Each structure stands twice: as structure tokens, then as C-alpha cells.
Known about the structure:
mainly beta
Amino acid sequence: xxxxxxxxxxxxxxxxxxxxxxxxxxxxxxxxxxxxxxxxxxxxxxxxxxxxxxxxxxxxxxxxxxxxxxxxxxxxxxxxxxxxxxxxxxxxxxxxxxxxxxxxxxxxxxxxxxxxxxxxxxxxxxx
Length: 127
């Protein structure tokens, strides 16, 4: 069992930046692909960004060029740097992880790919 813990959410104004972090309790992300999803009220959960075991990154079109996903060299934390935030970025952001598997690029975008989920952290962007 992998326990994921997110941190870094908050209330900001449009144009501001936030940095979200995800850590796996008691282990590193060495053998995991990790993603961020988000869910706004009354909307379905949607893919935001992912980083594979080999550090290949994937982004939703809506955040490309504004958000950056990265992993520290010790593979303890995965970070989502969010710049130029917009009110439509308001959502609960979830970290998700999948242990090593033979995944294709498109698999990283799918909710069903991930075995472990964090509790979520709220991001609110005011206009």
C-alpha cells in the first residue's frame, strides 16, 4: 500500500503561482509513474500532468506552457509548479501513482491507470 500526501494548495489571484508537492509515505518514487489530476465542483476528474519512471512528462493541453511537473533527484517528491494561474484552474488537485508497468504514453492520461491516490489539496484562483 502506498500512501500519497499532497501539500501546497491555497487561495491565490489570477496570474499568481503555486507549487504543489506529492510525497509517498515511507518510500521513494523510483519505480512509479506519478500524475496530477484535478476535479472542480460538479465536474469529472481530469488529467493535468504526469511524469514517468524515466522522467518523460505529459501535460493536458489546458496547462501546457504554464505548469511543470518534476521529480527531485532522490525521487522522494513530485512537484507541480503552476504559473499564470487562471480561475478555471480552481479545483481539488490529486496526486496519483502507478507502480512500474509497461505503459504507453496514452496510459498516463487515464484515471484507470493509477493504483494509488492522495486525499487532494484545494487550489482556488480568484479573478
